[in-house]
Protein backbone atom coordinates (compact mmCIF):
# COMPACT_ATOMS: atom_id res chain seq x y z
CA UNK A 1 0.00 0.00 0.00
CA UNK A 2 1.43 3.39 -0.97
CA UNK A 3 0.85 6.27 1.42
CA UNK A 4 -0.19 9.51 -0.25
CA UNK A 5 0.67 12.37 2.07
CA UNK A 6 -1.51 15.47 1.92
CA UNK A 7 0.15 17.74 4.51
CA UNK A 8 -1.38 20.77 6.21
CA UNK A 9 -1.06 23.61 3.75
CA UNK A 10 0.47 25.83 6.40
CA UNK A 11 3.13 23.25 7.18
CA UNK A 12 6.77 23.84 6.34
CA UNK A 13 7.40 20.17 5.63
CA UNK A 14 8.58 18.66 2.35
CA UNK A 15 6.01 17.67 -0.28
CA UNK A 16 8.00 15.16 -2.38
CA UNK A 17 5.46 12.30 -2.27
CA UNK A 18 2.56 14.70 -2.57
CA UNK A 19 3.69 16.66 -5.58
CA UNK A 20 5.53 14.21 -7.81
CA UNK A 21 2.86 13.88 -10.52
CA UNK A 22 1.82 17.52 -10.27
CA UNK A 23 5.40 18.79 -10.59
CA UNK A 24 6.44 16.33 -13.30
CA UNK A 25 3.52 17.34 -15.51
CA UNK A 26 4.28 21.06 -15.05
CA UNK A 27 7.92 20.45 -15.97
CA UNK A 28 7.03 18.35 -19.02
CA UNK A 29 4.63 21.02 -20.29
CA UNK A 30 7.15 23.79 -19.79
CA UNK A 31 10.14 22.07 -21.36
CA UNK A 32 8.27 20.46 -24.26
CA UNK A 33 8.51 23.82 -26.01
CA UNK A 34 11.61 25.39 -24.53
CA UNK A 35 11.29 29.08 -23.65
CA UNK A 36 7.69 29.24 -24.92
CA UNK A 37 5.75 27.91 -21.93
CA UNK A 38 6.35 30.15 -18.91
CA UNK A 39 5.08 28.47 -15.76
CA UNK A 40 3.56 30.12 -12.70
CA UNK A 41 3.49 28.68 -9.19
CA UNK A 42 1.16 29.94 -6.46
CA UNK A 43 2.82 29.55 -3.07
CA UNK A 44 2.55 31.04 0.39
CA UNK A 45 0.48 28.22 1.94
CA UNK A 46 2.91 28.03 3.77
CA UNK A 47 5.88 29.73 2.15
CA UNK A 48 8.17 26.70 2.58
CA UNK A 49 5.74 24.61 0.52
CA UNK A 50 6.00 27.05 -2.38
CA UNK A 51 9.79 27.15 -2.17
CA UNK A 52 9.96 23.35 -2.04
CA UNK A 53 7.66 23.09 -5.06
CA UNK A 54 10.14 25.20 -7.04
CA UNK A 55 12.95 22.86 -6.02
CA UNK A 56 10.92 19.84 -7.16
CA UNK A 57 10.00 21.62 -10.39
CA UNK A 58 13.65 22.29 -11.22
CA UNK A 59 14.54 18.67 -10.40
CA UNK A 60 11.74 17.46 -12.70
CA UNK A 61 12.94 19.75 -15.50
CA UNK A 62 16.45 18.39 -15.06
CA UNK A 63 15.16 14.82 -15.36
CA UNK A 64 13.05 15.67 -18.42
CA UNK A 65 15.94 17.40 -20.21
CA UNK A 66 18.21 14.45 -19.52
CA UNK A 67 15.60 11.91 -20.60
CA UNK A 68 14.82 13.68 -23.87
CA UNK A 69 18.41 14.39 -24.84
CA UNK A 70 18.51 18.15 -24.30
CA UNK A 71 21.75 19.61 -22.98
CA UNK A 72 21.28 20.43 -19.29
CA UNK A 73 22.42 24.04 -19.05
CA UNK A 74 20.98 27.06 -17.29
CA UNK A 75 19.49 28.42 -20.50
CA UNK A 76 17.53 25.22 -21.15
CA UNK A 77 15.31 25.58 -18.11
CA UNK A 78 11.90 27.18 -18.70
CA UNK A 79 10.93 30.54 -17.35
CA UNK A 80 9.04 30.06 -14.09
CA UNK A 81 7.58 32.45 -11.58
CA UNK A 82 6.73 31.89 -7.91
CA UNK A 83 4.19 34.15 -6.21
CA UNK A 84 4.15 33.81 -2.42
CA UNK A 85 0.91 35.35 -1.19
CA UNK A 86 -0.75 35.27 2.25
CA UNK A 87 -3.99 33.31 1.82
CA UNK A 88 -6.63 32.98 4.57
CA UNK A 89 -6.96 29.55 6.16
CA UNK A 90 -8.40 27.19 3.53
CA UNK A 91 -9.74 24.53 5.89
CA UNK A 92 -11.41 27.12 8.13
CA UNK A 93 -13.13 28.59 5.06
CA UNK A 94 -14.35 25.20 3.84
CA UNK A 95 -15.55 24.10 7.26
CA UNK A 96 -17.46 27.36 7.75
CA UNK A 97 -18.81 27.72 4.23
CA UNK A 98 -17.14 30.89 2.95
CA UNK A 99 -14.68 31.86 0.22
CA UNK A 100 -12.20 34.10 2.06
CA UNK A 101 -9.17 32.50 0.29
CA UNK A 102 -10.54 33.17 -3.20
CA UNK A 103 -9.58 36.88 -3.61
CA UNK A 104 -5.95 36.19 -2.67
CA UNK A 105 -5.82 33.22 -5.05
CA UNK A 106 -7.38 35.31 -7.83
CA UNK A 107 -4.80 38.03 -7.21
CA UNK A 108 -1.97 35.50 -7.42
CA UNK A 109 -3.24 34.09 -10.73
CA UNK A 110 -3.55 37.59 -12.19
CA UNK A 111 0.00 38.48 -11.12
CA UNK A 112 1.35 35.35 -12.76
CA UNK A 113 -0.62 36.09 -15.91
CA UNK A 114 0.97 39.55 -15.99
CA UNK A 115 4.37 37.84 -15.83
CA UNK A 116 3.46 35.86 -18.94
CA UNK A 117 2.67 32.50 -17.38
CA UNK A 118 0.21 30.38 -19.35
CA UNK A 119 0.30 27.32 -17.11
CA UNK A 120 -0.12 27.63 -13.34
CA UNK A 121 0.30 25.16 -10.47
CA UNK A 122 -0.96 25.63 -6.90
CA UNK A 123 1.43 24.51 -4.17
CA UNK A 124 -1.38 23.72 -1.73
CA UNK A 125 -3.79 20.81 -1.88
CA UNK A 126 -6.71 22.29 0.05
CA UNK A 127 -6.65 25.44 -2.10
CA UNK A 128 -7.73 23.30 -5.05
CA UNK A 129 -11.25 23.53 -3.65
CA UNK A 130 -11.35 26.84 -5.59
CA UNK A 131 -9.73 25.42 -8.73
CA UNK A 132 -12.94 25.39 -10.78
CA UNK A 133 -13.70 29.06 -10.06
CA UNK A 134 -10.11 30.12 -10.81
CA UNK A 135 -10.08 28.18 -14.08
CA UNK A 136 -13.49 29.55 -15.07
CA UNK A 137 -12.33 33.12 -14.50
CA UNK A 138 -9.03 32.59 -16.36
CA UNK A 139 -9.85 30.34 -19.36
CA UNK A 140 -6.74 31.47 -21.23
CA UNK A 141 -4.54 29.81 -18.60
CA UNK A 142 -4.07 26.10 -17.93
CA UNK A 143 -4.51 25.67 -14.19
CA UNK A 144 -3.13 22.28 -13.18
CA UNK A 145 -5.21 20.20 -10.75
CA UNK A 146 -3.25 18.24 -8.15
CA UNK A 147 -5.86 15.49 -7.67
CA UNK A 148 -6.01 14.73 -11.40
CA UNK A 149 -2.23 14.69 -11.68
CA UNK A 150 -1.92 12.38 -8.66
CA UNK A 151 -4.56 10.06 -10.14
CA UNK A 152 -2.66 10.01 -13.43
CA UNK A 153 0.58 9.19 -11.61
CA UNK A 154 -1.07 6.38 -9.63
CA UNK A 155 -2.56 4.89 -12.77
CA UNK A 156 0.76 5.01 -14.61
CA UNK A 157 2.52 3.45 -11.62
CA UNK A 158 -0.04 0.67 -11.26
CA UNK A 159 -0.87 1.59 -7.67
CA UNK A 160 -4.04 -0.09 -6.40
CA UNK A 161 -4.06 0.80 -2.71
CA UNK A 162 -3.80 4.34 -1.39
CA UNK A 163 -3.66 5.88 2.07
CA UNK A 164 -4.72 9.51 2.33
CA UNK A 165 -3.55 11.99 4.98
CA UNK A 166 -4.74 15.56 4.63
CA UNK A 167 -6.48 18.55 6.11
CA UNK A 168 -10.08 18.49 7.28
CA UNK A 169 -10.85 20.62 4.22
CA UNK A 170 -9.36 17.96 1.93
CA UNK A 171 -11.46 15.24 3.55
CA UNK A 172 -14.71 17.20 3.70
CA UNK A 173 -14.59 18.22 0.03
CA UNK A 174 -13.46 14.76 -1.17
CA UNK A 175 -10.80 16.72 -3.01
CA UNK A 176 -8.66 13.71 -3.86
CA UNK A 177 -11.23 10.93 -4.15
CA UNK A 178 -14.05 12.59 -6.11
CA UNK A 179 -12.04 13.47 -9.27
CA UNK A 180 -10.64 9.96 -9.34
CA UNK A 181 -14.02 8.27 -9.27
CA UNK A 182 -15.62 10.72 -11.72
CA UNK A 183 -13.05 10.30 -14.49
CA UNK A 184 -12.92 7.07 -16.44
CA UNK A 185 -9.13 7.25 -16.77
CA UNK A 186 -8.85 7.49 -13.01
CA UNK A 187 -11.29 4.68 -12.42
CA UNK A 188 -8.95 2.34 -14.24
CA UNK A 189 -6.39 3.01 -11.51
CA UNK A 190 -8.67 0.86 -9.31
CA UNK A 191 -8.19 2.34 -5.88
CA UNK A 192 -9.14 -0.77 -3.97
CA UNK A 193 -8.30 1.08 -0.74
CA UNK A 194 -8.57 4.78 -0.06
CA UNK A 195 -7.97 4.91 3.66
CA UNK A 196 -7.64 7.83 6.02
CA UNK A 197 -6.77 8.08 9.72
CA UNK A 198 -9.61 7.48 12.16
CA UNK A 199 -10.96 10.25 14.41
CA UNK A 200 -8.60 9.27 17.23
CA UNK A 201 -5.44 9.72 15.16
CA UNK A 202 -6.54 12.51 12.82
CA UNK A 203 -5.50 15.45 15.08
CA UNK A 204 -2.01 14.00 15.45
CA UNK A 205 -1.65 13.69 11.67
CA UNK A 206 -2.82 17.23 11.02
CA UNK A 207 -0.96 19.07 13.77
CA UNK A 208 2.63 17.92 13.53
Description of the molecule:
With 208 residues, this protein is α/β, with parallel strands linked by helices. It has ten helices and seven strands. Helix 1 (16-32) packs across helix 2 and helix 1 packs across helix 6 (146-157). The protein is globular.
What's this model, at a glance?
With 208 residues, the protein is of the alpha/beta class.
Short descriptors:
alpha/beta, single chain, four-stranded parallel β-sheet
Q: What's the arrangement of strands in the largest beta sheet? A: 3-2-4-5
Q: Counting H and I runs of at least 4 residues, what is the number of helices?
A: 10
Shape: globular
Rg (C-alpha, Å): 17 Å
Low-confidence stretches are 1-19, 183-193
Largest sheet: 4 strands, parallel
Kindly estimate the percentage of residues that lie in beta strands according to DSSP. 5-15%
The share of residues in helices is 40-55%
Distance linking N and C termini? 23 Å
Q: How would you state the average pLDDT, rounded?
A: 78
Instruction: Find the structural class using helix and strand composition.
Output: alpha/beta
Instruction: Tell me the number of strands.
Output: 7
What is the H/E order? EHEHEHHEHEHEHHHEH
Topology (elements, then pairings):
Layout: E1 2-5, H1 16-32, E2 39-43, H2 47-68, E3 80-84, H3 90-96, H4 101-114, E4 119-122, H5 131-137, E5 142-143, H6 146-157, E6 161-165, H7 168-172, H8 177-182, H9 184-187, E7 193-195, H10 202-206
Helix pairs in contact: 1-2, 1-6
